[in-house]
Amino acid sequence: MATHIRAGEITARRISATTLTYEIKLTAYFDIINGPGAADAQNTVEFTIGNVNSTGTPVILTAPRQESQPPNIGNGTTRNTYIINYTFPSTGEYRISFEEDKRNNNILNIGPPPTEQLNFYVSTILEINASFGQNQTPVLLNAPIDLAAVGQRYIHNPNAFDADGDSLAYRLFTPQRSGVNGAGINLQYVNPNQIGAPGKTESGASPATFSLNRLTGDLIWDAPVTKGYYNVAFIVEEWRDGVLIGQIVRDMQIIVEDARNDRPLMDPLNDICVEAGTLINQPIKATDKNGDRLTLTSTGGVYQSTLITPALATFNVANQGAQSPVTGQFIWQTSCNHIRQEPYDVLFKVEDAAGPGVPNPSLFRKLADMTTLNIRVYGPKPLGLRAVAATDPAGVAYRLNWTSYKCQVTGAKIIVYRKEGCTDISEDVCQEPGILLRAGYEEVGRVNSDQTTFLDNNAGAGLRAGISYSYRLLVVFPRPGTNVNEPGSLIGGGESLASDEFCLKLPMLMPVITNVTVDSTSEAKGVISIRWTRPAASAGLPAQYRLFRAVGQSGTAFTQIAAINTNLAAGAPDTFFVDRNLNTVANPYNYKLEYWYTQGGKLVKFDETKTASSVRLEQGSADPGSVRLNWSALVPWDNTGRTHRVYREDKTKPGTFNRIADVPVEGASTFTFLDDGVDRYAADGTVNITIVDDSTYCYKVETVGSYNNSQIQPSVLFNFSQILCVSSSDTTKPCPPVLALDPLNCDSLNAHPDAFCDLPGFTNHLSWTYPASVGGKDCDPNVAAYKVYYARYEDDQPALIATVTTPPSPLATNYDHEGLKSFAGCYYVTAVNRFGAESAPSNVVCKDNCPMFVLPNVFTPNGDLKNDVFQPYECPAFVQSLEFKAFNRWGAQVFTTKDVNINWNGKTNAGKDLAAGQYYYEVTVYFESSKKVSEPTIIKGWVQLLR
Fold first, then answer.
1. Rounded distance between C-alpha atoms, residue 412 and residue 418, angstroms
2. Which Pfam families does the record associate with it (predicted)?
3. Who's near 592: CB < 8 A, 6+ residues apart?
4. DSSP letter string over 328-375?
5. How far apart are CA 30 and CA 619, in angstroms?
6. pLDDT at residue 484, rounded to an integer
7. In-domain check, residue 521
């Protein structure tokens, strides 16, 4: 009964390809200062295994200890390992848990005290899915026991490694004790930095801090105030393709000493990315300002043959145990088998020991520091890509060839990407997945990595005659035990660099539109000029261009506006058209061009261009004293990555526009600029102004773009928007609406406990009014829409869920939020005027559910299938969780459960039939509410058990 358990976690790995057999492992850390006898006597442990989504009886397994003499890892701690194999009955989500009496005593931040009376409990959630193959949980390679020092920064990293290449994330968790059927119950807990608060960080800032980095797993306490034992817990989450597939709880102990010592320091390390086959030779250095002796060690999956395919890494320290500084050498010969999407995390740790100058070595307390080296191993780029025209019955086709790929990994696939035109992309040595998709490429096929050829015959969006195409290759690699067969998907096992581009610079047999520029802005006399390229000469002359126009940037109701005959003679004025008598004030316009050639004495359509719209300039929301401009163009060329030009009319010279700004634009289809009156372009003269309300200002913009194709000239394309005249006061924000939310009549609903049964979802009805004035100031009456925001909990940031517009008239001032799982939540509404200016939020209105939980006063567990179990009437609406306890008439507890339906069958938890009679119950119910941590509702009553 000695106090003994400090820390631990459970891991699991599938060991059979044909059955759902897993090796389940507990790694536990025992206090051999206060409880050596108990630690030595812990020869077995019990695992409790149950389906998370089932209330069935869990399985209890007894696992033996693996070591006859568990290793002493220092700091008065042994590491005991317990392993057993278990075959799960089916796929599903399982909880594997371990509990044992007696944590060690005097832990300062958990309770209730004494902590030696608290049991130690950890759990792991294992998702078993047939598509996961031989999946295994991450393993935690760094032991969770280190000394921390009062006033000094402490860092721990679990050095989690996932052999399957899954993504890992970390979050803090409350230490627990065991509950019913293998579940856990939170202990009383405060973060360690709140003991002896406020405290200071190592650098002297206040207060002390305690945090966990969600991405790296670094647990940092900066810095302890009070010496003693502390226990903290965190979860290591395992993610695959955006899906959470498992999680491990590590409960660990931090031992804080009032050390007469300064902690050693690791030199920081930068992340590295290397091509498979690279020899990594990385120096590692640690120092100690006191000149103490240093021990430098390293852990990571790269050292273990059970976790990665050899060759394994090595770490050598020539002057181990010497006085500061100490230097080690990390060496790893990477190979094709090491390619994966997630980085390899290699942990380096330094511990100090008393140097020769320490006066009292017995009082010396070892301290540590650590750092992590992140290594990403990517595949080499495919080489030798070429493409030539091929004969194919389907029509236009191209045959691609390349040299044999360097890394022949089973299951790897070569993906073929294609796009129109030829475009350079930046080669990022550690490129993010999807770089080709973001550059405008589409996947048109994939082949095994041992293939060297591919026929592109009209796949994807379809090949068109006379168009130049760019091709690139990318290799994707599988996770262990998986295959790469899903078209269009990237595989989480890693990638190569993209190959060099091969561009088919074919004769331009089709014209392409290069300009749609507004020459004149008018409601009836507007003018737009359209230009296009002349295609290469071919058979079938004479030919004809046919130009079509539609209203709106994305308009599709095209009308032919011109037919221009051509013999494709160089210099002929047949590649432009001036479109007149347009309403360019109110409308943008969309254009397309058809190319017709002569065949058998008749004109036959060859193909048509992609559509291109005029540039549309609009006013956006801005603060008083400024004007926000937004503009866009839906065009086949690229308007990003260049600098657009903004012009403002000089009021001293009506009709004259002064260039006031050059606006770099990146990666967007809608561009923006805020004019505060300052002229930022001096080459044509500087005209600064002060923007005031109720004064009108006129603007136009000029976009700058390119096809990035050397065959299309001019290479740089300039297009003007219409002229937009606006007032600064037009952007004044509307007033906030006043919101109301229909309440629930709980008294009426409680009389009908089945009111919410079998409903597909619930609806909250919102209504609001828009004020005529606020604080004596008139509100903008030109409201064009209302935006509705919702948050599930009152402390969450509300998110936009709907934009309510004119239905058609008048503007709607109500909204039904449908399909809800409960009524609980919070709302606010904003008003938006015609220029996109959005008001401040309305009043926030929250709604809660009715606490509906009605229990009968009799049940008859006699096996006649009528009223055999004690459970709530109808459906227990909106119950988040509960704890039910039943007592006999002498006050002894006879049954307890956390099942929201209770389902008490008249037996004790041990399965023994209870005698007929009257029993008393107490239910602690937590209802779903607008608060993340809801207040419990206590329900007490009695029930008659009849047999």
1. 20
2. CHU_C
3. 513, 547, 548, 558, 608, 609, 610, 611, 612
4. EEEEEE--GGG--SSPEEEEEEEEEE--TT-S-GGG----EEEEEEEE
5. 68
6. 42
7. no
User: What is the distance between the alpha carbons of residues 535 and 594, in angstroms, rounded to a whole number?
Assistant: 12
Burial 550-572 (b: 16+ CB within 10 A, else e): bbebebeebeeeeebebebeeee
Q: What angle do CA 591, 569, 609 make, to 5 degrees?
A: 20
Same domain, yes or no: 537 and 681? no
Q: Choose the final residue of a domain: 253, 279, 312.
A: 253
CATH code at position 282: 2.60.40.2910
Residue 466: pLDDT band by 50, 70, 90 thresholds? low
- For the chain, the domain total comes to 7
Q: Report the pLDDT value the prediction gives residue 807, as an integer from 0 to 100.
A: 55
DSSP one-letter code for 39? H
Burial of 466-505, coded b for 16+ CB within 10 Å and e otherwise, reads bbbbbbbbbbbbbbbebebeeeeebbbbbbbbbbebbbbe
Separation CA 475–CA 495 (nearest Å): 6
Tokens of 249: 């709880």
Give per-residue pLDDT as tens, 815-845.
999 988 889 999 999 998 776 778 889 999 9
Same domain for 771 and 899?
no
Whose structure tokens read 């393993």? 139
CATH of the domain at 555: 2.60.40
In a domain, 517, yes or no: no
Decide: residue 639, CB within 10 A, 0-12 exposed, 13-18 middle, 19+ buried.
buried
| Nearest in space to 300 (alpha carbons), one of 280, 324, 326 | 280
Half-sphere CA count of 486, side-chain side, radius 13 A: 10
- Mean pLDDT (the chain) is 88
How much of the chain exceeds pLDDT 70, in percent? 92
Residue 139 shares a structural domain with residue 21: yes
Residues 501, 384: contact at Cβ < 8 Å? no
Give me the pLDDT at residue 394, please: 67
pLDDT value, residue 483: 43
718-745 pLDDT, tens digit each: 999 999 998 766 556 789 999 999 988 7
Number of residues in the chain? 947
Q: What was the pLDDT predicted at 822?
A: 85
pLDDT at 773: 86
Identify the band that residue 462 occupies on the pLDDT scale cut at 50, 70 and 90.
low
547 band by pLDDT with thresholds 50, 70 and 90: very high
Residues 248 and 350 in one domain: no
Ranges assigned E (strand) in 15-128 = 21-31, 44-51, 59-64, 72-74, 77-87, 92-100, 110-111, 120-128
Q: What are the angstrom distances between the C-alpha of 292 and each of 202, 320, 325, 527, 819?
A: 20, 12, 9, 82, 65
* φ and ψ at residue 303, rounded to 5 degrees: -95, -5
The reported pLDDT for the residue numbered 769 is: 93
If you ran DSSP here, which 8-state letter would residue 438 be given? H
Could you give the CA distance from residue 856 to residue 866 in angstroms, rounded to a whole number? 14
Q: Does the predicted model carry a pTM greater than 0.85?
A: no
User: Is 514 domain-assigned?
Assistant: no
Q: Spell out the SS3 assignment of 210-244.
A: EEECCCCCCEEEECCCCCEEEEEEEEEEEEECCEE
Per-residue model confidence as pLDDT tens digits over 628-641: 899 999 999 989 88
Taking the C-alpha atoms of residue 876 and residue 880, their distance in angstroms, rounded to an integer, is 10
Residue 516 lies in a domain: no
For the purposes of burial, counting CB atoms within 10 Å of the CB of 527, is it exposed (0-12), middle (13-18) or buried (19 or more)?
middle
CATH code at position 685:
2.60.40.10
Do residues 241 and 270 share a domain?
A: no
Query: Residue 640 in contact with residue 688, Cβ under 8 Å?
Result: no
Domain of residue 865, residue span:
858-945
Question: Which of these three, 471, 504, 537, is where a domain ends?
Answer: 504
User: Does residue 880 share a domain with residue 825?
Assistant: no
281 shares its domain with 336: yes
